Amino acid sequence: MIEVLQTVTVLTIAVTSVFIIGICVAIPFAGYLKINHTSEQLWACAPLAGAGAIILVCQNLLYLDVRIQYAAILIWVCVVLVAVVSIGKNGYSLSNAEVPWKLILTGMGVYAVHGSGLLVSGVSNYYGYGWVDMYNYVSQAQFFLDYPYSSTIDIQEHLRTAQYFKHDRIGQTVLHAFITATAGADAQQTFGATILLGPMLVFYSVFLLSAGWGIERRFAYPAAVIASVFPAIASVHLECFFSQMISMPYLFLWPLAISYMLTRRKLHASVLAGLLFTVTAAIYTELITALVMITGIVSFATYCFQEGNGPTLKLKALKQNYFSRNPLFLILSLLCMFAVGVCANIGYIKGAIFVMKRATASDSSALGIIYPWAFSLEGLARLWIGHQRPLYSALLKYIAAGASVLVILTALFFLLSRCRKTMTTGKLFTVLIMCMPLAPLFLELLGKLTIEKNYHYPFFKLLLTIWPLIIFFSVCGIAEWLSIRRNGKAFIYFQIAFVCMSLGITNRIAYASIKPETVRSSARGGAYLLNDDNFIKMRAALSQLKEKRIYIWWYDNEMYAGSWRGKWLAYYARKNIVWSMNPSSESGAGNAGMGSLGDTKIKWPVIGISWKNVSAVGIKEKLGSFLSGTDTFWLYSLSNEADIRRLDLESRTIASRSMVLRVDKNTDAQTWYPIWISGAPGNASLVTVKFDKSVVRFRYDKWGVPAVIMTPGAACSGNKLEVSVSVRIGSTWKMAITCNDALVEAETVLNDIRMDDPLGVNSITDTLEGKYPLATRFPGELTEVPSSDRD
Predict the structure, then answer these.
(1) What is the DSSP code (8-state) at residue 251?
(2) Cβ neighbours of residue 95 closer than 8 Å, sequence gap 6 or more
(3) Residue (of 768, 757, 791, 785) closest to 675 by Cα position
(4) How many CB atoms lie within 10 A of CB 197?
(5) For 701-716, b where at least 16 C-beta lie within 10 A, e where not — what string?
(6) Residue 436 DSSP symbol
């Protein structure tokens, strides 16, 4: 019941906050825009204005060292004062009949569809797919709540992560922290509720954009719903791409803002465009370069060409063109927009420069693994079915990819037909935005001819970003054609069918995301590790502790060698003095051992949390059971240095297996034989052995990195070998092999070698590095010796 109340509270505050604050911001501008207080345009603008106002006010106050929880109080006080003054001065009130409830409730319905998984799991157990991005965003938001921006405190892992990212784009995180402060929850509980605002805001922004294209409401409204509940959007927020999700609706507003600025001779038009510039930059700075270029192109077209005269833009006489007669006005408008854009968030200038330098200098090739299907039919298919489902059916792939091609062509035909009738700055800007994925596509084609780089990641990310627009214009085009060619209600049936299909697929994707088997099988996140029954118990126990000393040793073969779960354990134990022995790279590169504590004096007693059962160490308690199919947490009460150092040493041994090898068959001196093989083709870890005439050699292969050859020495000989293989993590990964008491150790790389894989068999590959033969079975008898330390 407590979780249900917490969920209802957080979701209600997330949705209503942007509306309430947005109305207070939008009403003063309504007069300038000549919009009455009951129009759908005003109420569609409200949540967008509200979220933008929260970001700008809180981020500026943050740079002045005002913590978000105090900034939230200030904003709500201002909201109350605005409401009191408005009512007292104008006696203004709205009746139910004057509020466009249908529009408001539709937006909330979009929110609910995408949040179906969250509604079932509750805010405390929701992680989307559980990407590392979520932890980074949560760490930043929690830091902004608990400490002033200038603080350099980094005594805990989530604080070190926040310090690493706090100079980055933080607009979305400021909004997140504001909702957290208002709800009285923690940043993890409000992350899902905040990122789900993205699809709702997409609905309102696309609906607003339709006015600039002159699309009838009966076509635009259902199309906006379909665009906002389409499965491609669910993939963005489930993969925790917070900046991308929140920036999309503001990106779609740029054509309206720039068109309004270039066709009006009012200062407030440039101010509004400048504020939109600021909000977009605060959320997703990398988009600004493309948007500035598009603004320049559209401004030049406005200066040189006329609007609304046939299929192509034609030169207009200088005496008839306002901007031609007054080019200074165009320049001043653009300068005013950029000046407002910079000054409205002046504290972020250094951060924006840093982000832009990183974007231009970094190589996106490494991120290509996120969207390996980008330039394939599978990529087009996944726009419909999401990223969590394997594409076993070739027929499904071709059908979904064909549907994507059809949608793109339909949208293109509709855009061209509309532009042929009349071309405006807003239409030109929209078309250029929708062309943004063509840039990385061109670079990919160029790269195949010149340099070895791939642009899978930026292409597919931009395609996902503009896909709602493609869906919107495609649906509008088909519905409009049906209304003309097929008299009656054919277009209504089409809209209903498309809405139902999109709702059904997206709801299924969002709901499936909370099932552990979904994310585990897709290998696209670690949510299943955090929804583990025992992890939930451990989280609850840590949340109750205060002012204790806690050391965390968590290693596994899942995400980032266990640092994924370890960092979340540290986050939930943040009210204590916490030290993680397996930190993430963002919070201190490498892995911290006892030596990393330096001269830090350990005060007793200490609570130790480990994945491993280590005998004769302190007083221990077992939390969880392997009978539940989840991982066990071992809690230790440590009272001396010897115990803590032994626990540190033993916990770092990730995997260790002992075995007896009896060679009873002839062996080939050129062939390697399997000992311990883990993984699958393309992502395997292989421990093998080769019997030369006078020496035995062991080998470790991890696909994608050079092999490691280990030769124990003369003692490792004969037909019977007593062998142990262990993987340990310290400042680096190490593999140790003991053969007849001869020890050899070598540095390796992060691996996924698993304790439950069979020994002595190989079904992965028949060669190593494509040239050294690898047998399918060990040439004799391989018997595992049970370890006393093994759980």
Answers:
(1) H
(2) none
(3) 757
(4) 28
(5) bbbeeeebebbbeeeb
(6) T
- Is the CB of residue 258 less than 8 Å from the CB of residue 295? yes
User: How far is Cα 144 from Cα 178, in angstroms, rounded to an integer?
Assistant: 9
CA–CA gap between residue 616 and residue 78 (Å, rounded): 60
CB neighbours of residue 734 within 10 Å:
16
DSSP state of 531: S
pLDDT tens track for 373-400: 888 999 999 999 988 877 778 888 999 9
Residues paired with 772 in a beta bridge: 768
Alpha-carbon span 2 to 223, nearest angstrom: 38
Determine phi and psi for 426, rounding to 5 degrees: -65, -40
* Assigned token pair, 600: 């830090």
Q: Residue 545 corresponds to which amino acid?
A: L
* Tokens 């006696």 found at: 91
Largest CA distance in the chain: 99
Question: What does the alpha-carbon distance between residue 214 and residue 38 come to, in Å, rounded to a whole number?
Answer: 21
Q: At what angle do helices 242-263 and 267-283 cross, to 10 degrees?
A: 160
- pLDDT of amino acid 611: 83
Question: CB under 8 Å to 487, separation ≥6 — which residues?
Answer: none
Quick check: helix, strand or coil at residue 211? helix
pLDDT (tens digit per residue) in 670-700: 999 999 998 777 778 899 999 987 899 999 9
- Going by the DSSP 8-state scheme, the letter that residue 124 receives in this structure is G
Q: Which among 137, 167, 242 is positioned nearest to 197, based on CA atoms? A: 242
Other CB atoms closer than 10 Å to residue 421's CB: what's the count? 12
Tokens of 54: 């929260």
Tokens matching residue 312: 């192509």
Token pair 């905040």 is found at: 194
Q: Which amino acid is at 723?
A: V
- Give the whole-angstrom CA distance, residue 198 versus residue 245: 5
Contact, 455 vs 443, CB < 8 A? yes
User: Contact 183/14 with Cβ under 8 angstroms?
Assistant: yes
What is the per-residue pLDDT across 644-669, written as a single tens digit (0 to 9) for each? 888 888 888 777 889 999 998 788 98
Rounded-to-integer distance, Cα 35 and Cα 476, Å: 25
Helix (H) or strand (E) holding 696: strand 696-702
Q: Tokens 């009455």 appear where?
A: 36
> What is the rounded average pLDDT of the residues 107-132?
94
Nearest Cα to 41, choosing from 201, 196, 200, 205? 205
Q: Compute the radius of gyration of the chain from its Cα atoms.
A: 30
Task: Give the number of residues written for the chain.
Answer: 791
Is 592 a residue whose pLDDT tops 70? no
Q: Which amino acid type is present at position 360? A: T
Rounded to an integer, what distance in angstroms lies between the CA atom of residue 501 and that of residue 229?
A: 10
